[in-house]
């Protein structure tokens, strides 16, 4: 399982140590501890911390960022399961087609309100509700290191609701974290048909290809990720590292410079 030290997180995300430790102390992110007591941050932790960094750049106070991420975590079971953005003085959260004000929980938009015949709506809503319940169970199993049960819950959730993007992301990450990168890539190929512009899926694909030793394929996946999101600092950093290992210092330097420009 790929983890990042506190120093690597500070280099990757570009926010002060005090900001990271404040989010750890509040329970917004919960890194594991290494053999010497050091923090080991996972990919989902980086997603949350990148969100916090983006909100800081929009001049949102540390207190509001912390409160918004905690409320989002309470609503979605994971602060990484929703996207947050600043809109003027508001912080807007979005997940599963719903939008709400992150620091108050006030709903702004519900995709499920689209009018359809009642029997169709009821059937789809029931499936979607059960799928998300299974997804939440999978997240709980994963936190308890019950990985086989987590995988089973994620797969059942996707069978009921293939539009549940977060389940595709988390299942592919789980498979790769536990050495089943080939199956992760098969799953990601299916997921990307449904979500061709998902940078999270592309990033997972690049990580899986790296772990399988396909550095060229990983480079292409990171390039695709950057085509969709040119400000993805993590993709620039990892691509620079791959070019460094391949003995292509100019390309490596170009991506490292882009990474520094984004995070500074």
Your description of this structure?
Strand 4 and strand 5 form a beta hairpin. With 264 residues, the chain is an alpha+beta fold. It folds into 2 domains: 75 residues, Multidrug-efflux Transporter Regulator, Chain: A, Domain 2, CATH 1.10.1660.10; 146 residues, Tetratricopeptide repeat domain (Serine Threonine Protein Phosphatase 5, Tetratricopeptide repeat, Alpha Horseshoe). The strands form 2 sheets. It has a 4-stranded antiparallel beta sheet with strand order 3-4-5-6. The protein has a two-stranded antiparallel sheet with strand order 1-2. It is globular and about 50 Å long. The protein starts with 5 loop residues before the first helix and ends with a helix. Helix 8 packs antiparallel against helix 9 and helix 9 packs antiparallel against helix 10. Helices cover 64% and strands 9% of the residues.
